[in-house]
Design goal:
The protein is an alpha/beta fold. The chain contains four helices and five strands. It has a five-stranded mixed beta sheet with strand order 1-3-2-4-5.
Length: about 110
């Protein structure tokens, strides 16, 4: 399963109203650490398919959502459940950190 693509236009419907936990990777094309965690997000999307929704939001193209959630440095990964932020990871971290946080949500 490929990661979802979130935008300012679809964020409410796709992320906040989702029927399962949602992990949102706030990133930009020029961000080196963002490129480092991109393959991890793809792997997690496949491993947790049906349990969580994982997607990316380009902060350069979707500034409203990034500002709303106070994203000041990237990558920032927000963990949503029932439309609320439950956890945050800032910076490139190991896959095990993401797995631990996802397991707390599901």
């Amino acid at each position: 399963m490929k990661t979802a693509v979130f935008s300012d236009d679809n964020f409410g419907e796709e992320a906040l109203k989702a029927d399962k936990p949602v992990i949102v990777d706030f990133w930009a094309t020029w961000c080196g650490p963002c490129r480092m965690i991109a393959p991890i997000m793809e792997e997690l999307s496949a491993e947790f398919e049906g349990k969580v929704k994982i997607g990316k939001l380009d902060v350069d193209e979707n500034q409203q959502t990034a500002i709303k959630y106070g994203v000041r440095s990237i990558p920032t990964v927000l963990f949503f459940k029932d439309g609320q932020v439950k956890d945050t990871v800032i910076g490139a971290v190991q896959k095990s950190v993401f797995i631990e946080k996802i397991n707390k949500l599901i």
